[in-house]
Design a protein that fits this description.
It comes from Sitta europaea (Eurasian nuthatch). By secondary structure, the protein is an alpha/beta fold. The protein is built from 6 helices and 7 strands; from the N terminus they run E-E-E-H-H-E-H-H-E-H-E-H-E. Strand 1 and strand 2 form a beta hairpin. Helix 1 crosses helix 4. The longest helix is centred in the C-terminal third of the chain and has 11 residues.
Length: about 180
Amino acid sequence: QGKQKKARKYAVMKRMISLRDERIKEKDRLKAPVKKKEDPSVIKEREVPQHPSCLFFQYNTQLGPPYHILVDTNFINFSIKAKLDLVQSMMDCLYAKCIPCITDCVMGEIEKLGQKYRVALRIAKDPRFERLPCMHKGTYADDCLVQRVTQHKCYIVATVDKELKRRIRKIPGVPIMYISRHR
């Protein structure tokens, strides 16, 4: 005993009147979309950002000794845990002179951490560190570092934060320095 085949019914869908139909009253009709004039100052969504001229082919020509290294808060803390001299270990890594740079946001973040991280604050106030002033609102250090690196491709970013590393990898031509296995 097999199943009985049912014939399919065609055009079962309910018929609907279009909102532009003449039978519908004028006030209930669908209005034709009004085209807005395009503002030339607004950035177009389809526009792809132009790669900077320093990225000739895929090599960043602005990077060169002495290297300017943007230091993040957790990089300083991890260097203390690993008992590394920050400037000396950077020079050992790159085989060249390094200038560690620290932004006002990172400095503020270290100060907010309190008394427990006073060693990190003392390292950050080292005269070998170059201070970079911030001109933006807010004190979120990750956004500050990403914004600075996007504008100027002359920095190496030193961080241990996974989320910040993920964000910086999306920016072409920016190398990342991190601490792993006490190195």
